[in-house]
Each structure stands twice: as C-alpha cells, then as structure tokens.
Please model this.
Amino acid sequence: MYVAVKGGERAIKNAHKALGKKRRGDVGVKELSVRQIQEQLPHAVDRVMTEGSLYDPELAALAIKQACGDLIEGIFLLRAYRTTLPRFISTRPINTDKIDITRRISAAFKDAPGGQMLGPTFDYTHRLLDFSLLEEKEPEEDCAGDCGEDREDNPPISRIVDFLDKEGLVEKLADRTKYELPGDLTREPLLFPVDRDVRLQNLVRADEGFILSMGYSSERGFASTGGHPFVVELRVGEVDVEIVPEELGFTVCIGEITVTEGDVVSVYSGSDKAPPQFARGYGLVFGYGERKVISMAQVDRALRCRELGEDIESPVQDEEFVLSHSDNVQATGFVEHLKLPHHVDFQGELEVLRRMRDEWEVRVEKRKRLMDQTAQNDKGQGETCNVM
Amino acid sequence: MQRNVNNDTEALLSDIAKIENEPGYNHAFLDEQTKRMVRRAILKAVAIPGYQVPFSSREMPMPYGWGTGGIQITASIIGKADVLKVIDQGADDTTNAVSIRGFFAKMAGVATTEKTSEATIIQTRHRIPEDKLTRAHTMVYQVPVPEPLRWVEPRETETRKMHAHSEYGAMHVKLYEDIARHGRIATSFDYPALVDGGYIISPSPIPKFDNPKLDMSPALQLFGAGREQRIYAIPPYTKVTSLDFEDYPFEVQKWEDCCGLCGATTSYLDEIILNDDGDKMFVCSDSDYCQRRCEAGHKGPFADDRISDEQGERNAS
Model:
C-alpha cells in the first residue's frame, strides 16, 4: 500500500544511463564527433564559450555534445569546469584596433577608412530552406573559389567612433591607456550599484535571449531616454592575447581569439555639465555573436542612465532588475529547482489553506446571517416609515 | 572592491598535492583559495549573527537552486574526520540528498551516515531533524532566498538599508495584514525570525514547526545561498525569536493524525495520497527518526502495510 520513496541512488543511476542512450540516439547513425561540432556548429560553440566565460572551442563543443545540444546546459557544464581552473595570470586588455578582420560594417557611415566588409553573414540571405543540404556533399562544391575573404596584409583599422570623437560629437572615454584591473564577478559577489566594468562582464555572460529582449524593449520605447541607436561599427576578427609575465617584464603573445565587438551610440540630450552628444554603448563577445553584441550595447547604453543623470523609468534601465536576472545558469537552476520535492512546504501550505477555508466558510455564513438580519430589520423599519 | 590577481603559488601546489579521491580535483571539489574565502565569510557571519555576508559563490557541478550554497559551506568546512548527513525534506533517501551525499563521499572521501546522532555535519534542505542537536553538530542550511524582506521590498539596495537601520516595520505590517485578511499569520514556512535581537533572517524554507529549534541551539548553524551569494549564521546558544504579536503569538503546525508508521504525535508529518479515492496517511518527514522509532517497536496504524526497502528499491527503479 505505502510505496516507500527508497532507492533514490539506483533511480539516479538508471536515469543517467537512459540519458546516455538518448544522447547517442540511433546507433545505426554515425556518432557525432566533437571536432564536427567545433567545425560545423560554430555559432553554438561561440555562444557556449561567451556565456560560459571560457575561450576553448574544443571544450565548448564537448559541452554541447554532452548536453545533447542543450546550449544552456552546455554553458553550465563549461562554467562548472572553468570555476575549478587555477588563475595563473591576467592578460593585458585585448587591443581591437589591431584586429585581423573577417567582417566589419558601419550603419552610420556609407563608407569609412578601412571599408565595409560583409564576411560570413546570414544578412541578406533569403531564409529559404536549402534542401540541397539534406544531402552530404563533397567539400569542393561549397568552399572552393575565392569568397573575397582574405585581406593581403593586416593594417590597423581606425575605429569609426573615433571620427565622431575627434569632432567632440561623442562622449569622451576614460583614458584608454590607463590600465586598471577590472572587477571580476566570478571572484567577487555582485553588489549594487555596480560599476560599468562589472556590468559589462555581467552582460557578456548574460543569456543571449534575455539581453536581446531587453535591448529590443529599449528600442520599442520602454526606455524614455537615448534616441534611436546607431551601430557605428561592428567588427569581427582575431585579436592577440598578451601577457606580461612578472619575471620577464615584457609582453608575450600567448594566442589569438576571435571576438565580435560593437560600438552603438544614441543621442544624449546633455545636462548642466555635459553638452548634447552621442552616448556610447559597448558590446563584445567571444567568436561570432552580432545579435548579442548589439543588444548588449543597447542594454549597456540604457543602464548608463544613472551615470548620465537620465530618468529611470523602464525595466531595461533598472540595474538590479537586468543584472540580477540575466544569468541563465542561475535562472535555469532556480526555475528548475521547482522539480525538487517540496512536500514539507506544501504540507505547511495545505494545513494553512485548509484552516483558512474552514474559517472562511464560518465567516461567510456569519456575514450572510447578519445581512439577512439587517435586511429583515430594514424592512420592518421601512414599513414603520411608510405609516408615518 | 578587492582586485587581487590570484597568484598564490603555495595554495596552488597544495591543491595539486591533494588530488586523492577524484583525480583532477581538490579535496571536496573547491580549491583551497576558494575554501579560505568561504571560511572568511563564515567567520564574519558567526561574528555578526544573522547578518548576510556577501561571498563570491562559485559555479558548482550542481545547478543553482539545488543546494550550491550549502554545498560550498560544507566543502569549505569538511575534514577527513567528519561524518556527513544530508537530508532533503527531512529524508536521507530523497534523490537530491542522495546526490549531494554521493558527491561528498566521492570528492572528499568522508564517511556518511543517515543517523543524526552519528553526524558531525548535517546539510539540510527544508527541515531540522527531530532529534535534539548537540554541540558536536554543525547544521548547514541550503537557502534559496536569503533575504527575508524580499517579498516586502524586491530591491537589494533598499533591503540592505532596511537591515542597517533595523527598519523592520514593513515586515510586521505584512504579518499584520495577514491577520487582518485571514484572521491568522498565513506564513507556514520560511517564517522570519529575529536573531539575538539584531537582524531578521530567513530561516530558509523550513516549516515554522522547526523555528523553535533554531532558538538556543547548541549546534552551530550556517546558512548558504549560492545563487544569491550570501552566507549567514546563528552561533550556538543564540536567542532566535519568531516574529509575532502579543495578541497573536507565534504558533506551530499541529496534526490530528499521528505517523502511520511509527505512531509519532510530535513530529512533522508529510501527507501521502494512498489511492484514487484520495485516502491518505501521514508519515514522519524525518526518515531517520521514524526508522529508529519503528525499530524500537513503536507502531502506527499503517505499520504492517509497510513494504521492505528492497521492494521499494525495485519499485523505484
């Protein structure tokens, strides 16, 4: 009659076995290799690296494989691995002026020094299912021929926002040559109010969908300030990662990473201290991630309201609201913890609810009786009145 | 804000030297620097009873909301000689308790137990054991939302000020509104309590039935909220008062039924639906307490219907 909830251990083991089976799918189909994921699902790999806060395409691909393609689960796997890694040293800030560009566009100017370069993009594709991809093809068919990708040399490319800067039309940045180690919310708790460095770190790690929606909300009018956002520049490419080992005292390049960087500006009407100008929003992610970069820059711009003395009226301007709910590993954990047993609390609520219902019935009955009585009395009085 | 580059080679070497239980990982999963950081937060929490100390919570190999705060505390204080008990909803055999216990058995190589009396560290979600705790126990609570004022004021910047000024009127108003609307305080778990006349805490979602056990407990009680990055504590023998009013004193849940298995009348009971007609029975939520009472010969009305553990395992798997 009473089924004991025993055997949790064996149940867990069996569940994990079932998961392994599901991951493998039909054994008649060749197993997906980590290398294939890394090479052929680069957008998934990049998202997992960005939100997982670890630049390692192979491990990100492994996480995607292990998570059966559930990217948030993959991000979680990578984060849980990352947190165990010892920190040897902090790198120098990456210098995106020296980026080896594979894509660069500006929506603000028709042309600019360095030119526009579309590179690999979904933009301007017609979203028609390409049924030819149903068939496995030999590589030559697709990838042969020059797609205008390689640039001869790699001269530094001016930042377009700097042209605005020269005219004083965009707010001045803090001194970029001054080097200060930024805050790190994987080593310090998030405390409000937060500075821009920690906010940007939070936004990079934030869920792409959440940041996209928050950015979108600011564009649809749920942000009272900051006019139309302009993508002044979006650049994708490889940058060097450099360290300065203490015992050597000079810069050593330890590798290259691919990043997407974006400068978004919108009109700021100025204050007593600052003239009207464009105010900046900034976005940067690992790999290719334009959607995230643009929306991140929008949210960064909106969240600068405190610093710029703008009215705070919309969800996207609310630092606590945005930054406390942006992390999908935290969010998914807490939302999904509702699957855990809660029967002790539920029992408490049942007990309270039953008692409240009993009392409610008594109260309603009593009120009904009183109302009947009053009605009776009123009726009696009414008759008396008529007589008078 | 501290901005150290973590470059403590000594700690690093000791981490590497300590790979014993699970190759590739330090004793009890966390690296020694992180443990030290957590222990510093714990010390501060003990020194300021009930104060929520921010700490830099790490991603654990379990999801946020599934006990990561408690796990980080346990990982930071557990030593080789400790004996660990993990309960969820009062029971040792619920899946998440099994999973966390297994994690520490593997990653820290410690002895585990289901007996309250044998344990030195008890990590818990939603219950305090029925047995009296002693000075030998350290309770580690898994806390989902450490801020008792959260439902009154959602903003951290505001609640911090309210705590600093002991501005707890809003909390009393909330309880008063319950009474005005429902004729009673309708909070049945996570019932706010005042620690040593200072800070109001969330006792974590334990039923209010367990609140009196917080008061003057000989055990050290540590509360960890991983996702919310807070640690707080009730040191041994500290006064803990559940909020109430003179004319509406604090009261705990009572049941008309007794435990169907061991016949206990003073323990917290869970309700179990027996069949499609909705017949039900009640059983102790503290599985160790119930088991020992059964072994001692106590019998409840359903004692003879109990199926064996082996059979239960078969059903579960």
